[in-house]
C-alpha cells in the first residue's frame, strides 16, 4: 500500500451553521455535494471535485477527544485579507514567519476549538496589525 494524497479531515461541530460560517465565510472554503447521510453536516471544498473538510453535527460533543491530531493545515493566499477578516470577526490568531521554510504560518481555532493552520508564501508582505 502507498498513500498518494490526503483525502479529507472531519471536524465535529456543536453548531453546524456556526462552523459553516467560519470555514466558508472566514476561511473561504465552498460548500458542495454531500451524499444524503443520517447525520447533519456539510462537505467543504477548496477547488475541484474533492471535498477536503467534512463537518459532522447532530450529536453531543465527546467528553473525551478521540485521537491525538493537533491541527489541520491549509495552503492559503492573501495574508492581509485573512488577517483583516479574522480581526473583523474577533477571532484570535498567532502569526509566525518561518524564514527557513519560506512561509508565514497563521494559527487560529474554529468555533469548537479545532486548531487551524494557514500557510502563506513568505513573499507575501507582513500584514498591517
Automatic annotation (TrEMBL):
Domain of life, per lineage: Bacteria
Residue ranges of domain VOC in the record: 5-121
PROSITE patterns given in the database record: VOC
Gene3D superfamilies referenced in this protein's UniProt entry, alphabetically: 2,3-Dihydroxybiphenyl 1,2-Dioxygenase, domain 1
Protein name: Glyoxalase
The species this protein was found in: Nitrosomonas supralitoralis
Amino acid at each position: 500500500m502507498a498513500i498518494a494524497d490526503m483525502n479529507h479531515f472531519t471536524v465535529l461541530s456543536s453548531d453546524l451553521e456556526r462552523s459553516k460560517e467560519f470555514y466558508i465565510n472566514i476561511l473561504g472554503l465552498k460548500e458542495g455535494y454531500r451524499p444524503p447521510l443520517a447525520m447533519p453536516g456539510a462537505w467543504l471544498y477548496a477547488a475541484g471535485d474533492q471535498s477536503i473538510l467534512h463537518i459532522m453535527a447532530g450529536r453531543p460533543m465527546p467528553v473525551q477527544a478521540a485521537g491525538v491530531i493537533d491541527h489541520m493545515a491549509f495552503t492559503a493566499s492573501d495574508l492581509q485579507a485573512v488577517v483583516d477578516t479574522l480581526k473583523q470577526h474577533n477571532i484570535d490568531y498567532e502569526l509566525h514567519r518561518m524564514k527557513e521554510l519560506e512561509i508565514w504560518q497563521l494559527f487560529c481555532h474554529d468555533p469548537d476549538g479545532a486548531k487551524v493552520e494557514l500557510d502563506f508564501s513568505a513573499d507575501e508582505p507582513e500584514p498591517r496589525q
